[in-house]
Design brief:
Length: 427
């Protein structure tokens, strides 16, 4: 038996018997103590409120820990979770294991290519001809950009634009990773391609197109990567989610592996197979077909990613609001703060009051467009004091602010531009 075949058997066994190595991960990653309120208050004392920050000490530890979790598997950085060129450059320069970016729009890929980035995978299909054209111009100039498709209409448009630009575009097939259990759809509504047969059918349709080449496959297992199994107050749901995830992992691995094999049997030169996310690294890297994993949220570690049993990253970024009023004893009102995360509604999508500790929302107001009242029974807040918050989803922080205050070793050392500060908005 060949070495490759043996490795495949070993990986398959591990996937089928997969259990997150909770204690091991925690021992390796939980090494640095988190800062307290006086430390942050002092470090950011000269910043004009409101502001967003990134703590380099914690960011660098997250970079290290994510590389550790992925073992030797290359990591593609999901730009939508960061939206700051300076931070992405820091990650790419930290370790050769970090290779390439996963973008979310052709215009974003074109923008990043113009700023020197390369190896850009556009994770979502687009029918915007002008945006595809801008990206193709950078392909013609020598940049590697993958265009996502899950239909012949998308592939045909990319082919048309690539032909008009006298270049050849690389395509990535978006493979749906949702799982159907009896009476339950476990996953997200993403791609129309859900089987090896569907993938081969699409490949046969696009194969005659002269100016595109299918060379990559991506499958995002959102129900593993982005769904925690220790959400507070979900005493019944948490064990159900964990069991469903354990059942889904081998199904996902089989679908992705069989799809890649089927495409290769049809003559497709599949060189990139992407999967995973922050929450699924340990299971994704065990798949024989995988060539890289995508990671984004784990770098900033917003509070949505506090609720996983098998890893815990550091809260490396957030925002601060000013206390502008004290309408009553133990009630402190901040200016602004209504930064609600996308997706389904619920308290978990609210920003989380972080420092000082023991802050809580007023139930009939919550975080508001222009004010956010908080309950606090302590001695650290006064009118003019900062309150530090953690956002729910990673990428939405930089959509609210033009820059990040960069803190290291207890002091602000720089201010760096976000996409918004660059005058860019890819939505």
């Amino acid at each position: 038996m060949s070495t490759q075949a043996t490795l495949h058997m070993v990986r398959s066994f591990h996937i089928l018997s997969y259990r997150p190595p909770c204690s091991i991960i925690r021992r390796k990653t939980m090494t640095k103590a988190l800062p307290n309120y006086p430390a942050y208050q002092q470090a950011f004392s000269t910043e004009q409120l409101p502001f967003a920050w990134v703590d380099l000490d914690l960011l660098d530890q997250n970079i290290h820990d994510l590389a550790l979790r992925a073992q030797n598997t290359p990591i593609r950085i999901a730009s939508k979770s960061i939206r700051c060129r300076w931070v992405m450059e820091r990650i790419l320069n930290a370790n050769k294991q970090f290779q390439g970016l996963m973008c979310f729009h052709p215009n974003e890929a074109a923008f990043l290519a113009s700023k020197g980035f390369d190896d850009l995978l556009i994770a979502y299909p687009s029918m915007q001809k002008s945006a595809i054209r801008e990206a193709c111009k950078h392909v013609k100039a020598g940049k590697t950009i993958y265009f996502m498709v899950d239909s012949i209409e998308q592939a045909s448009l990319v082919n048309e634009v690539a032909n008009s630009e006298n270049t050849k575009a690389l395509l990535c097939l978006d493979l749906d990773m949702s799982v159907n259990f009896p009476g339950l759809y476990f996953g997200v509504y993403r791609s129309s391609v859900r089987s090896p047969e569907a993938a081969v059918s699409l490949y046969k349709k696009l194969k005659p197109l002269a100016n595109v080449e299918l060379c990559a496959v991506m499958g995002y297992e959102a129900q593993i990567a982005g769904l925690g199994d220790q959400i507070p107050g979900k005493l019944i749901e948490n064990p159900v989610v964990k069991k469903l995830q354990e059942r889904a992992i081998p199904i996902i691995a089989e679908r992705r592996g069989n799809t890649v094999a089927a495409l290769k049997n049809e003559g497709a030169d599949i060189r990139v197979v992407n999967g995973g996310g922050t929450g699924s690294i340990e299971s994704t890297i065990l798949e024989a077909a995988i060539t890289e994993v995508a990671v984004g949220s784990g770098f900033f570690a917003p509070h949505l990613f506090d609720y996983y049993s098998h890893f815990q990253h550091k809260p490396a970024a957030g925002f601060a609001l000013e206390v502008t009023r004290q309408p009553r004893k133990r009630i402190y009102t901040c200016s602004g703060g209504g930064y609600i995360a996308s997706g389904t509604s619920g308290d978990i999508k609210l920003p989380k009051p972080y420092l000082p500790k023991n802050l809580s929302y007023i139930k009939n107001e919550g975080p508001g467009e222009v004010q956010t009242p908080l309950k606090y029974n302590g001695k650290l807040l006064n009118i003019g004091s900062p309150v530090f918050f953690r956002h729910c989803k990673a990428g939405e922080l930089c959509e609210r602010f033009t820059q990040l205050a960069v803190m290291q070793s207890g002091e602000v050392i720089d201010h760096v531009s976000t996409y918004r500060g660059d005058g860019q908005c890819f939505v």
